Each structure stands twice: as C-alpha cells, then as structure tokens.
UniProtKB/TrEMBL annotation, chains A, B:
Pfam families: CBS, MgtE. GO terms for molecular function: monoatomic cation transmembrane transporter activity. GO terms for cellular component: membrane. Belongs to the SLC41A transporter family. This is CBS domain protein.
Amino acid sequence: MSTTAVDPVGEAATRTAATHASVAVPVAAPHDSCRRILDEMRGRTFECAAAVAICAADGTLVGMATMERLLAAAGDTPVRDVMDPEPPTVTPATDQEEAAWRAVRRGESALGMVDGTGRFLGLIPPDRLLAVLLAEHDEDVARLGGFLGSSAVARSAATESVWRRLWHRLPWLLVGLGGALLAAAIVGAFEHQLRTQVLIAFFVPGVVYLAGAVGAQTVTLAIRGLAAGVGIGRIAFREAVTGPLLGVMFALVTFPLITVLWDEPRVAAAVAVALLVASSIATVLALALPWTLDRLGLDPAFGSGPLATVIQDLLSIVIYFLAATALVT
Amino acid sequence: MSTTAVDPVGEAATRTAATHASVAVPVAAPHDSCRRILDEMRGRTFECAAAVAICAADGTLVGMATMERLLAAAGDTPVRDVMDPEPPTVTPATDQEEAAWRAVRRGESALGMVDGTGRFLGLIPPDRLLAVLLAEHDEDVARLGGFLGSSAVARSAATESVWRRLWHRLPWLLVGLGGALLAAAIVGAFEHQLRTQVLIAFFVPGVVYLAGAVGAQTVTLAIRGLAAGVGIGRIAFREAVTGPLLGVMFALVTFPLITVLWDEPRVAAAVAVALLVASSIATVLALALPWTLDRLGLDPAFGSGPLATVIQDLLSIVIYFLAATALVT
C-alpha cells in the first residue's frame, strides 16, 4: 500500500487527460486484504479516495477497487476478488472529453491513467471529470454559435465587457463579411438572368436557408457522434442518403406550391431542383468539414457554425442560379 | 450512523435533481468521531461512499464530510471538525443541469439533497452528475443544430436509421419551408424596387447572413449564461450595446467597399443602414426569445437554432428592402 508520487504531466499539456490526473491516490497490491487496505488508508491525505488502484509489483495497473466495494467486502477478502479487473483507463495523450465519456459509459466516476506499457500513473477524480465536461460543453456550444475558443468560459463570456465581446466575435464576423461580398459577386454574375426573370430573386433566401438548415443538422450530428465515440464513417452513409431524401421531399412540396402561388412553373422547377441538389450536397459537405478538421487534429466543432454556414450558403447560391439558368432563362 | 432509506423520488420526475439522488449513503451525527464513522462503514453496502452526510437528530443536514477528509483526520476527532458545514445542496425540484454546475463550482463531486425544511433526503453521486452533464450537453447541441429533444442521445442519434433521422429533422425543416415561402412573398412585395435596381438583389444573402451571425452569437451567449447561472438581465444591457456597435462597424466597412466595387453609393448606403439596423435588432431579438421561453418554463435552448434563424432572416429581409426603398428607389 502506497501513495503514488509519479508526476504524469511531463509537459504543459492542456487538452489531454494528463492535466487532470490526481497523483496522491491510494495504491495497493492484488493480494492485499480489503481490511488491510482500509486500515492503511487511515490517517493519510489523498487527493482522491474514490477508488484504490491495484498494481502489480512492476507498477502495472491490474485493477481498480471502488471505496463502495472495499467497504462492502468481508475483511479478509483479497482485493483482487472485489476489484474491477478491467478498469477504465486512459493514457496521458487521451483527449479529455473522450476520457470523461469513457468514465460515464463504464458507470465509473474515476478513471485510471496508465502509460503506453500499462504502468499506473494516477487517477482522474470525479470532480475533475465534471469540470472537464462542463468546459467541453461550453466550448462546443461557443463554437457552434460563432465564438472563438478563447471566450469559452460561459460565466465570464456572459458578463465580459462590451469591448471584449466585440473582440471575441469579430474574427468569424469578418469571415462572414467576406462571404457576404462574395455572395454579392456570385449573384452579380447572374445579373442577366435576374433582369430576364425577377422572380428568381424571390427564392434566394429560402433556398439558402433550407440547404443551410439541412447542413446544420448534419454537422450537429457529426460533432455529437464524435464526442460520443461514434466514428464519422458510421454516420456518413446514412447522412449521405438522408440528404437527397430530404431534397426530394422539398422538391415535391415546393414545385406545386410555387407553381400555384406564383404561376411560374419554370422558376418553381428551378427552386425544386436547386433544393434537391443543395440538400444532397449539404449533408456530405457538413460531414467533410468536421472530418477534415478531426483528421488534422483540430476540434471538429470548428467545422460547424460560421465557417460551414458561409461555405454552404455560397454553394447554395451557385446551385440555385445554375438551375435557374438552365431551366428559366 | 445509519443508512438513509428515504425515497426522494415521489413522482416520476425526469428533469429534476430528485431523479438522481442516491439513497443508500452513509449518514452520521456531528459528534461522531471520524474513527467510529469509518469503522461503522465497514461491511456495509452503499450506493455512494464518496461523502458522509452529517445530520442533526431531527434529520436536518448540517454538514458533509468527504472520504478524503475522514481518512486524513485523526481518529478521535469529532466529524463536525472536519466536515464542510455548508455543503452544496439542492432540493428535489432543482433543475439537474443547475445541480451539476453547483457541484462543479464548489469543487465537490457529490451534492446533498434536502427538502424545503433542510431535512436530508439523499446524495447525488459523482457518476450521476457526470451522466446528467453529458445528457444536457448533448441536448443543447442538438437543439442548436435543429433537432428535437427526443433525438437527444448522441450515440443513438448518430447511428439511427435513415427513416428515423428524417422524422427527427422534419419538424424544424417544415418550419423552415414555411419561412422560405414567406421570404419569397416579402421579396415579392418589393418587386418594383428590384426591377428598378437589380443590384439590390445582390446583397440580400449577405445582409441576411451577417445579421443572423450576430444573433446566433448572442443566443449562444444567453444559453451558456443561463446554464452557468448568469441571469439574462446581466447579459442584456451589454448585448444591446454590442449589437449597434457591430452594426456601425459593418456599415463603415461595407459602404466604401460596395461603393468602390459596384459603383452604386445608394445601394451601398442601403446595405450599410440595413446592417446597422438589423444587427442592433438581432442581439435584442436573440435575447428576447430564450428569455421568453425561460419565463414560460421551457428550455431556453429551444429559442436558438432554427426558430430564431427563421425569424431573424425574415426580419433582416424586411429591414433591407425598406432601407433600399428609402435610399435607392
């Protein structure tokens, strides 16, 4: 029975599980009796006593015994009989959100940290896991909403001064401003079509909005799936099918409605085709962006919100005007 | 020393802290020694032994002692000397996300649950708090992305069948479809202006996008603030000032740029005025929606995402065409 004194935080890792490992935790051998472990814990100061790490002589983590199990066991039972022989573990390089999810999925409140060879490095206690999840939650929501990660702490972001709030918002808004001017240039390239049939202009906001909404749903699904440990591959196929299906539904509703309401079947056809194509592309694009960022080692949540919206919007405008060019003018 | 057997879950409460209270937890009196408490916990089965609830004779919770403190204390010390005399508590009616935030802010991993008179009802253990936070996180992200709450479990939502995914998405998309047709009708009401100056059409997507982006940032801030326990009142004033400031910046950038690039100062002026007005309104509208829903007892996150976007987009179109009518035609 000992208290581990290994420092698992070699470098200043801020985003990995290593940051949160507690080093003053109880450690015991598999053959120690529950009584002896509990006795020896008396009078000692632990950062976390939620569970005892059970290690072999070479320091390998072979199990974890929660305080509840130690208390419930009869006194002379060796701890190996009550320990979880496959405790949830992470390495110092594990992403902190992934670590927290792993604990929840295992119904455990503490996680063991081991190095590449299985040697015990420390425990991540429940209060740290809670803090990690809150911070990650906040960051995801912030990115979806168009803030940079630096303003990710909800309480401070909500109450910070007017100038700081301007500063935290401007980066994405400037990207948006560039997108807005690009959108004007794209519409401008189809000026002739607009002059020939002004009705085309009526449906630009609607097509842009609907394709954007489909993409936003997909990107949300991808971010949530990634956080929960579901690979994008498992999401991709179904989303790729869902996009065209939604597009077909949009087309089937909008074509007759616009034909009846505006008496222009060719414009109605252009809207229907644009919605079909744009929705089909929206789900694929929405998956490609977080996937690419994930591959590059960046937070996939960056691929949502403003950036995805700008790209999606510009693409929808192009698709709609191409459809209008082909079908109307 | 006893194990509490009170069942705090009278009715099928699903969103409140009561759902998560653990009932088989150690309870002791303030004058009990740490040694005695630890001795009496031996051989008993607890759902959560992270902390011991310290209760007066009438059942009132007067403190909480974590396992770490009990172990560190000298044997005969009465627990009242090592307990936290103001433990973080919630009532059964407390919102579960609020309860989880409270635990994190206090640096505690377990929360005491008490009734209106301070009588101890149970403990919410750390693994439940973790699960609550994950579920809430997931739900917020889902709503921001345009899903209904019923599809809120990330793992299942990410892998569910194509038909179920269509079903979970359609409600908001149908709202969006209605919005798209309404947008067409609004643009149609300004057909004369478009025929007079086709350049007006070029900037519709950009104005809609930028005002929407400003509103999305505010709504994100409001949701995050509410989750962290910051009232909308504290956010409102600064946001109400931030909106016009962003609008002024947009106006100062777009007016010269559009004038130079498209050689139409009157259209440039209409875009600049529209961005100023729409941005100013965007932050106020973005706060009013979650605030109203919060007042009605609904999740403020519903006021974000698709609904807010549709309303914001329609309003931006109206503002832009009114500005164009006044300044261009």
